[in-house]
Design brief:
Shape: elongated
Order of helices and strands: HEEEEHEHEE
Largest sheet: 5 strands, mixed
Radius of gyration: 28 Å
Helix content: 25-40%
Number of strands: 7
Strand order of the largest sheet: 4-3-2-5-6
Oligomer: single chain
Length: about 150
């Protein structure tokens, strides 16, 4: 008696061989979902100034990026410096709580102090009372005494 393999057993065998491959693909997918982080990149590249204070960052209604050359980006939209006050007034009027409107200013570390002062004057002229400056924490380096 000769046994002839049926076609249904071949298709089952192929399906059984695919299961380990599917498992590996799902494991790789889970690994990359956990290991990788997706973050949006800033419209303007800035390097924040350093600070020794380590306060937690609060939630803000708006974010203003300021590059070293004075270029402005408000909530990921480039804008001219002369339109900043009007735009901020509009955002305050659209806010649910205009008195508690919070603005986060992220200046570049190499931005000149007088440019930052002029910018903060525009923010104040718009009526914003709560402004935070974003900084990065300063790493402490130990100085070794020389003998």
């Amino acid at each position: 008696m000769i046994l002839i393999p049926s076609r249904s057993s071949k298709s089952n065998q192929l399906d059984d061989n695919m299961i380990p491959l599917i498992n590996i693909v799902f494991l790789m997918l889970i690994f990359f979902m956990i290991a990788g982080q997706l973050t949006s990149s800033a419209l303007i590249k800035i390097q924040p100034p350093t600070s020794q204070q380590q306060l937690a960052l609060e939630e803000h209604e708006a974010i203003l990026l300021v590059s070293a050359s004075g270029q402005l980006a408000f909530n990921d939209v480039l804008l001219e410096a002369n339109t900043l006050t009007d735009l901020l007034k509009q955002k305050i009027s659209e806010s649910d709580h205009p008195q508690s409107f919070k603005l986060l200013v992220k200046p570049d570390a190499t931005l000149e102090a007088n440019k930052l002062t002029e910018l903060l004057k525009q923010v104040r002229a718009a009526g914003i009372l709560r402004v935070s400056l974003a900084t990065q924490t300063q790493t402490q380096t130990q100085i070794q005494p020389h003998d």
